[in-house]
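To start, one record:
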Amino acid sequence: MADLHDPPLPWSTRLWFAFACFFRVLFDPQFAARAWQAREAAALPPAGRREPEQLERAREGSAPPLAEAPEPAKKEPVHVPAPRATPAPPAPPAASSALQLLALLQREGRLVDFLEQDIASFGDADVGVAARMVHEGCRKALRGHAKLAPVRREDEGARVTLEAGYNPSEIKLIGNVSGSAPYRGVLRHRGWRADELSLPTPVAGHDASIIAPAEVEL
């Protein structure tokens, strides 16, 4: 039996001990019997104030010893998974190169002027003359700064077979698409791939958003 002068247990220890005893009494019959006997022994008055009959029973061993406190269960270390690193959002595409190329097409072929012009009131002959001039200038600008090659080498109108694993970024299926590869069809457009792109280096302070500066004649 614990001495009356023993220091009291902290509240957190008593709370844990109460839960441990509860489940052990519930599932361990022998421990429950010892705890019950310890409860009866704890109800006896202190040794200096016991009645003779109670002292006799204690000497005869009728009063069972106090149950030993269960050893605290060893807590297994809790493995906390490291937080997943949130992938950084992709950087927005740089627009300066596209704006430079558009500026070249405008400078050489007046492409922006042609596209922004309302040609509904023009006759077919006038549109044809303007389109020829735009085509000539834009073709010059494009070939001077980009090297293009067809995606498919076959002639347009040829029959082709696409095996499983073809690159969908290179080939677009059109028409009645069903089932899975291999696909057999007719090449309607060979596609284009930019093998090289060479743009002029902008000078310091250049504003790429200005496709074409305004012109003032003096």
Observations:
- The mean pLDDT is 80.
- Residues 202 and 208 are 8 Å apart (CA to CA).
- The chain is about 40% helix and 10% strand.
